[in-house]
Amino acid sequence: MSTESQPIIHLTESAAQRIQAQLRQRGHGLGLRVGVKKSGCSGHAYTLDYADRIEADDVVFEQYGATVVVCRAHLPLLDGMTLDFQKQGLNQAYKFLNPNAKAHCGCGESFAV
């Protein structure tokens, strides 16, 4: 995480539309909570959950009318990341374009920094 500027998480328009659609379908929530946990072959895995409230140690990012909430402790691993949502045939998923990830496991579930 850069000490010179505010940490940033980017959203693509496709990801923002997906977040909004999921919240509409769910019927409540403030946004999408993005985090990291120790896991997998490479050391870290992304976590996704609904954000129903903003905690004191959360940082909020808004783009294209959608909100992403990140715990401040996770920002060093996520700073500069772009969250995208892609559809390919019958498959659809969020994609994490993280400049901090130096390696990914073969299954695509975890990353190393």
From TrEMBL:
What Pfam families would the database entry show?
Fe-S_biosyn
Domain Core, chain residue ranges per copy? 9-109
Please give the PANTHER family that the UniProt record associates with this protein. IRON-SULFUR CLUSTER ASSEMBLY 1 HOMOLOG, MITOCHONDRIAL, IRON-SULFUR CLUSTER ASSEMBLY PROTEIN
Q: Which family does it belong to?
A: Belongs to the HesB/IscA family.
Tell me what this protein is called.
Answer: Iron-sulfur cluster assembly accessory protein
